[in-house]
Amino acid sequence: MINAKMTELGKVRSVIREIFEYGNKRRAEIGAENVLDFSLGNPSIPAPEKVREIMARLVTETDPVKLHGYTSAQGDAGVRKAISDSITERFGVAASPDLIYMTCGAAASLTISLTALVNDGDEVIALAPFFPEYRVFAEKAGANFKVVKCSDGDFQIDFCALENAINENTKAIIVNSPNNPTGVVLSEETIVKLSDLLNKKQAEFGTSIYIICDEPYRELVYGMEVPYIPAFYDNTIVCYSFSKSLSLPGERIGYIFVSPKTDNPTDIYAAVCGAGRALGFVCAPSLLQYTVKECIGLTADIEVYKKNRDILYNALCEYGYKCAKPDGAFYLFMKSPESDANAFCERAKKYELLLVPSDSFGYEGYVRISYCVSEKQILKSLPAFKALMEEYK
Ligand code: PLP
């Protein structure tokens, strides 16, 4: 008898993947240029030229035995030092290479962090709408997954609902800003309020409640500052990824940063190393480690996303759709004109518009539009969105 839960996870494709596969079918049938696919969060802009130059130089000029060899399980010491220095320089918070763990992207950072923190019976809170894999990662780590909905419309934290959800079993809350799927950025005021609430609850229950700060979209913001949570709340673990900032999602590189202000950083870091070991996530790809060492702080040309956002957001509002204005990431969360977002997405297919219904993000009645596509596709989609809305008038 093999593991039934894993078999189910392997067989049941995510809704996003289902839609993407449907898109592949339509692309084969009617030509790629006629399919208005807004399903996947795959960066549409290339990695900066500098990244490619560094990789090429590393491949041609570095001793191949070193370049392609194992690094330390937690990552090369020089790479971790460069990341730790940059955290201190950019955000003004203390960091140490001994509290950085290199990973294969944010997905690995999250599974490792959750596994490191959670004991059976602990609760992990996600703020809905959330990246659907949180549930998979948290439950595999042994947690009871608890969902707290954000306020409808602006998708900021509903503090009343959050306070009611926290109890003596709460081990962690996952915070994702800029957010997938809403694009909303949590303000400094919100982060301060969140810190105050968690500090109050820690004191009340005599427990530690950690923020797992999932930030693959940190640099993808349009005229906003994203508060760095370790500067506001001590018990924070940052899960970072270069997938979106450097347009390198297929290369699988990111890191975990355990704040030195957590209540027991040495043991938490040991648990991170232990979880990495138990999950087989050791020695993140060495070529990528050495590459990111030289491009920390560099970002792909996000003007392209900003332009897409502006065109799409303005047009959708004009046609009568309602969306929270996204300040970051490359997603737009739009209210479905009918209460059943699945039915709306089915109707959209008539216009070859592929949208993701929000149910799998833990929030009903909306659709996610990934605008990390070409401007040409955005422009081509506008009449389709307009005609679709006309059906509801
Ligand atoms: N977290 C969020 C919110 C995401 O949107 C994604 C990917 O889309 C991930 C984590 C996983 O990122 P990575 O490709 O770095 O594993």
Structure report:
It is a single chain. With 393 residues, the chain is of the alpha/beta class. It folds into two domains: 135 residues, Aspartate Aminotransferase, domain 1 (Alpha-Beta Complex), CATH 3.90.1150.10; 229 residues, Aspartate Aminotransferase, domain 2, CATH 3.40.640. The chain contains 14 helices and twelve strands. Strands 2-8-7-6-5-3-4 form a seven-stranded mixed sheet, with helices on both faces. It is globular. It binds pyridoxal-5'-phosphate (PLP). Pyridoxal-5'-phosphate (PLP) binds next to helix 6.
Layout: helices, strands, pairs:
Blueprint: H1 4-11, H2 15-30, E1 36-37, H3 49-61, H4 64-67, H5 77-91, E2 100-103, H6 105-117, E3 123-128, H7 133-140, E4 144-149, H8 159-165, E5 170-175, H9 188-205, E6 210-215, E7 236-241, E8 254-258, H10 265-279, H11 286-293, H12 303-319, E9 331-335, H13 341-348, E10 353-354, E11 356-357, E12 366-370, H14 375-390
Parallel strand pairs: 1-10, 3-4, 3-5, 5-6, 6-7
Antiparallel strand pairs: 2-8, 7-8, 9-12, 11-12
Helix pairs in contact: 3-11, 5-11, 6-7, 6-10, 12-14
Bound molecules: pyridoxal-5'-phosphate (PLP).
